[in-house]
Structures are given as C-alpha cells and as structure tokens.
Specification:
The chain has eight helices and no strands. With about 170 residues, the chain is mainly alpha-helical. The chain has one domain. Helix 5 (about 100-120) packs antiparallel against helix 7. The longest helix is centred in the middle third of the chain and has 25 residues, at about 100-120.
Length: about 170
C-alpha cells in the first residue's frame, strides 16, 4: 500500500514540475511567473508535517535545480528548510481557515525567494543582481497565496490525509 502513496508523491511532483517549466512561463503577471514548486513544498509541510515537508522540499528542490543554471542544491536547501519550517511553525494552526494557509504559503514564498536571491548573490550569481527581486518576490508571493487552497488540496491528496491527520483517501 505504500507504493500508492509514493506514486502520488512522484506524480504530483512531476506534474507541478512540468507545469512550472512549460506552462507557467507563459502565464506571467506583470512579467512574473508563479513559483509553484516552492508553494507546493510549503503546502507539503503544512499538510504533512515538518519531516515530510523537509524531505519533499529537499528532493523536489533538487529536481527543480536540475533544470536551471543556478548553483545545484540551492533550491534543494531553500525548499527543504522552508518545507520543514512550514510544518513545524504552523502545525495544527493552518486548517482553521483558508486565509491562514494563504498567509502561510504567501509569506513562506516571500521568505524562500528572498533567501534564494540572497544565497544566490552570495554564491556569485550575478544575474540575480540585475533582476527586479522585490517585484518578483511580491507578485510570486501573491500568486501563491491566491493558489493556496488548490496547493493545500493537492498536498492533502498527495499525503493521503485529512486536515486533522486521519486517512482520507484510500492508499
């Protein structure tokens, strides 16, 4: 039965990655595309807890890193830490309202993108110096906050749990 759970995680990760690489760049708002992988890593931590959020964020971030010309492992580090923090800091508080999950995913996205830009610049990524980081962080955070309900539903289906941690979907 664990294979069905693992299959769901891999399926969701692949679908979000494909959407992020192929569709999302064409759906820009004010020149900024959604940062769905980071939003899903945060939702995975919120829905599955700190440990699942950290593991999913790290491995999903590493998979995303393979498609970009930034230091490999940078997204893995950021996504893992943000996924862990989301699961640890917001445990049992998020499911009270969709507004709380939107705030958590939006603020987590802002923190993750800021950390990514800061660490990238520290590691010598000069292209990040030329990009409008503030605009990217604000718009991507708002996009992820708007998509928070969808991201949380996907994360709950992926982990096969309901908001209070009981099995919801057949595994």
């Amino acid at each position: 039965m664990r294979s069905a759970w693992g299959l769901r995680v891999v399926l969701i990760a692949m679908l979000v990655l494909i959407f992020h690489l192929d569709v999302s760049p064409d759906l820009r708002i004010a020149g900024v595309a959604a940062e769905l992988p980071l939003g899903l890593a945060i939702a995975a931590g919120l829905a599955g807890g700190a440990e699942r959020g950290a593991y999913f964020g790290f491995f999903f971030g590493f998979a995303v890193d393979l498609f970009f010309f930034t230091p490999i492992g940078l997204r893995a580090l950021i996504f893992g830490i943000i996924g862990w923090a989301a699961g640890h800091l917001f445990l049992d508080r998020i499911e009270e309202s969709p507004v709380m999950s939107a705030v958590a995913i939006g603020s987590g996205t802002a923190l993750g993108l800021t950390a990514f830009a800061g660490l990238g610049i520290a590691l010598g990524e000069t292209a990040l110096l030329e990009s409008p980081i503030t605009r990217i962080v604000l718009i991507a955070s708002l996009i992820n906050a708007v998509l928070a309900v969808l991201l949380m539903w996907v994360a709950h289906w992926m982990w096969a749990v309901d908001p209070i941690g009981q099995k919801r979907f057949a595994t």
